[in-house]
Amino acid sequence: MIRYIIRRLLQVIPVFLGTTLLVYYMVFALPGDPIAALFGERQPPQSVIDALRSQYNLDQPFWVQYGLFLKNLFTFNLGVDFTQQPIAATLARIFPVTAMLAIEALIIQAVFGVLFGVFAGLRKGKLFDSTVLVASLVVIAVPTFVLGFVFQLIFGVQLGWAKPTVGANADWGNLILPAVVLGLVSFAYVLRLTRTSVIENMNADYVRTATAKGLSRPRVVLAHILRNSMIPVVTYLGANLGGLMGGAIVTEGIFNVPGVGNKLFQAVQRGEGPTVVAIVSVLVLVFVVANLLVDLLYAWLDPRIRYE
Amino acid sequence: MSNNNHFVAPVEETPLQATDSLKTDQAPLSLWADAWRKLRRRPLFIVSSLMILFLLFVAFFPGVFTSVDPGSCQLSNSEAGPRPGHPFGFTLQGCDVFARVIHGTQASLAVGVLSVICVLVIGVTLGALAGYYGGWLDAVLARLGDIFFALPLILGALVITQLPLFRENKSVWTVVFVISMLAWPQMARITRGAVIEVRNADFVTAARSLGVSRFGALVRHVLPNALAPVIVLATLELGVFIVAEATLSFLGIGLPPGVMSWGNDISSANASIRTTPSILLYPAGALSITVLSFIMLGDAVRDALDPKSRQR
Amino acid sequence: MNTVRIDEAGTAKDRPILEIKDLAITFTTSAGEFKAVKNAHLSIMPGETVAIVGESGSGKSTTALAAIGLLPGNGRVTGGQILLDGEDIAHASEKRMIELRGSHIGMVPQDPMSNLNPVWKIGYQVRETLKANGRPDGPDDVARVLAEAGLPDAHRRARQYPHEFSGGMRQRALIAIGLSCSPKLLIADEPTSALDVTVQRKILDHLDKMTTELGTSVLLITHDLGLAAERADKVVVMYQGNVVEAGPSLELLQNPQHPYTRRLVESAPSLASRRIQSAKEQGVEAEDLLAPAAEGTSRDEVLQVRNLRKIYKLRQGLGKSSDFAAVDDVSFSVRRGTTTAIVGESGSGKSTVAKMVLQLEAPTEGQIIFDGVDTAGLKGRELFTFRRRVQPIFQDPYGSLDPMYNIYRTIEEPLRIHKIGNAASREKKVRELLEQVALPQSTMQRYPNELSGGQRQRVAIARALALDPEVIICDEAVSALDVLVQAQVLNLLTELQGRLGLTYLFITHDLAVVRQIADHVCVMEKGKLVETGTTDDVFEAPQQEYTMALLNAIPGASLMLPPAVA
User: Which chain B residue is nearest to residue A29, measuring alpha carbons?
Assistant: First the structure.
């Protein structure tokens, strides 16, 4: 297991370097004055331009620039935004909000998705199964931002069950509505994947053997069907973290959640290129690390992986 | 009961049949014909393909459904309710919602279809070559795929659309480019896996021993047998890409405001959500129904092409 | 009749432990109702071993699964009784079946690769069995159970995962699980058919010993009549869902009554091989019993393999690698018009030799000389011509035909590739080829998934023959087929050899098949050639211990049979 962790860690490094290089190259090394280009039509204050020039070391050769960019990234020296606020300080303030939102959404999709998926799978072809299957298709088809508006309208404005916008005071309770919106599409995917996986495992030879050993049905389901069915689900949850980030941008925008996604959304709409690049780089780092954790969980669930 | 009794069943009870005789009662069925026969019987497939055909018709001939010019907006009609000739009412700017929904179909479908074609061309080619030949090509592609995989679609699109090149030339094509560039690795991955599964099959080795060239075997035998998961993914991705376009347009980094699209309309309807939510709900509904059609089609196709359901 | 004596566990000594009466089982499929078992009956006395023999689809496994209440969801018992120690369990509640499974009825499944859960340690999978049946389940108990099944170093083994075990070890673990709670009845469904013959023999010997010690009755499911006769007291023959014949093993073998049983007895390779053997001992020439070999054809050496070696680099992480010799210094030659068999167990390198002869893999060292020409230098045009002359037939009848091609396209492909004839002449040739392999013309429009394994294998033969090759390499070409179909395909191959003067290089793990078809034998073990000679010499006077072990492992080797069955 230790060897697997080390090998996996070593694999993460080139991926992270490659991804940040890709992002950095696209923004700063393509022809044209990157600073001017980042602001488009607008003319930012000279002080901001100066700060950016020193932040990104644009007078240096490309590889030095990139090296310094990485160093800045790892020391959380992320530069300043349009209003000359340091981005790192802003992120430190808003990151916990997004983390809360993501955790709630992850719980919704993982816990409820698996639960519904297992019951649907075990009752394949029954009414519950068919209903859940059709419902999940509909949920998948409605884009997150449409869902956001609809839920905001119904539960926030008309029914008044939750505040339509979260505003400054984000807490676990306030975030439930946006978390539901954020987690719902993946919930449907997790449900369907779990269902397929459970059905496949129910017909596995080792499940029949487990029954032949004299195990009770609950034992067979828990130890042999569920455990094995979780393997593809965990892989999906890991891969889907990226989707969760994309969704967070939309969801936080709609519900006015003071999180990373909202900040990014505002930066995009105001055309603040440097802020976008800085935040995206941090998010890529988070994504890569989170995927590493998911891989370790995967290796724990499936011992075969560790011995490739 | 005695242990030594020797039981022999009467022969008439189980008449002896010729060993391994060929059953010729059914019409011959190719894999595709078999899948088609299964599809035809699935209500999910019938409903979704009818819906898609209808949507395609709307996209190509919007004039059949509305004669109102979606671009001519009069502020005097701002947020006005439905009236004859304008069944869905008017937007904040006083544009006809029905006409905009009808004319918006084209952009969504165009982005979806074109992106899927690009992703198929890039992903299938690279994935098949990597999976079939292996070696350094496979290693390079795997790493490249990992790098793109670490850049989630929306985040990647945010960065790319910041580039001056894109900011100044926004069009259907730039959106297609952004989506394809970020989405091909998944297609390549799936193709690669499917090709690896098939490439060592005995029928491929047999073809090689017959004198079929290495590349010939890939084209004639490996690829056709690796297509099922690719087709399923492509159908599902059509829906996913349509959502991606709408999301990007909603965020203001997709199609330019001048292009009629559901994403843009939903974005601008944001302002009227508390007063006239229907302005938002109509394009949102059209978008959802379109995506639902493709997701349903993908689901039906997946079931029909599932190799497990085909084994005897 | 004795008075019924009840032992401590409450079992009547002369009441059958399992009695199946008029059993009928029906499956509900999308195509309608399907009767998998129509009329099955058998009885097993305490301590007795009874074997059900039949081909795939005969209903033998379904009958056994019904006895432990594990029919698939769409199957149900529609008639008859299953009496376990006098209690009818055909319609017992799931609760009752859970009580009975493990402690009263154990099961050893067929495929050791798929029957252990890959995510749990072996020890856990044993322990949960003990626990569910209320037995002591400490680490020592687990180790004891594993050790009794013949797994050395059981404490350490219990902490390993299934993928760290070889096939034979997994099967031992499954036997350990099946017998861990000393059931009165053990259902063994083809318990060793996925294993190498020598491993198979060891495991069956051990299973015999354990069940004898425990006094467990065994219901053995097998397709191999020789194995059934050797291991069981009674044999039950099933055909198309019916029991067609049942009786004491030897009597049934020596005096089969039902035409199907007779057919089985005639074609079972292990028995056929045994028959040839005893015929030899009694002075009858083997040629009289075999199909005539291609006499009169020239006896030159069409294929010579000299000091062939194949080294694979095994990666051991972090840039290190070690050499692994899959084939190590192998030399043999094949004479035109004869059949040479390469025999070995998995990992012996026999298939790698076949691949190298087919020019699908390059040898690391050594020469392959085909018709006087070293094949190492063949490129382009010459290689293309070589491919015309040497053709393969592979093992897996489900994998060797492209599922996207119909049979016509499949057989026509070699002709098209080599640009032979026009559309009309190619169609004529395909028709001829189908006739040669005894398939009806209507097969042309069919797809591989519509054919049975044997039929697919014939199509593969027809495809191989399309280019009028001189040498055909059969890589386990009949191993996956039912015995009767196997015999049929072997006959076809022999007949084609006589008619077309073909040379066969026959790669197989099954010595019984070798006895029936080969003129020469090469025995391989771990990449090396350990023994070579004429089939008669190798079978009558094996020189190497390994060859002897292989010969002894042929099921039914110890049976005494008359030289020919009337």
Answer: B163
Subunits next to B (3 or more Cβ pairs <8 Å) are A, C
pLDDT band (50, 70, 90) for residue B312: very low
| Nearest partner of A280 among C387, C401, B161, judged by Cα | B161
- Chain C segment 175-204 residues within 8 A of A by beta carbon are 177-178, 181
Reading the block at residue C521, the tokens are: 């034998």
Helix, strand, coil fractions of chain B, as percent rounded to 5: 70, 0, 25
CATH of A92-265+284-301, one of 3.30.1380.20, 1.20.1250.20, 1.10.10.1150, 1.10.3720.10: 1.10.3720.10
Residue, of C557 and C173, whose pLDDT is higher: C173
> How does pLDDT run across C280-301, given as a tens digit for each residue?
555 544 444 444 444 444 458 8
Whether B44 and B300 have beta carbons less than 8 Å apart is answered as yes
Task: Say which residue, A234 or B32, is predicted with more confidence.
Answer: A234
Residue C100 near chain A (CB below 8 Å): yes
ipTM for the predicted complex comes to: 0.80
C-beta atoms of B9 and C394 within 8 A: no
| pLDDT tops 70 at residue C279 | no
pLDDT of residue C509: 84
Interface of B with C (CB under 8 A): 1, 3-9, 11, 13-14, 16-17, 19-20, 22-24, 26, 28-31, 34, 201-203, 205-212, 221, 224-225, 310-312
pLDDT at C220: 93
Q: Which of C386, C44, C358 is nearest to C187 (CA)?
A: C44
> In the 8-state DSSP scheme, what is residue A157?
I
What sign results for the dihedral spanned by CA atoms C161, C162, C165, C169?
Answer: positive
Nearest residue, CB atoms, C101 vs list A7, A211, A302: A211
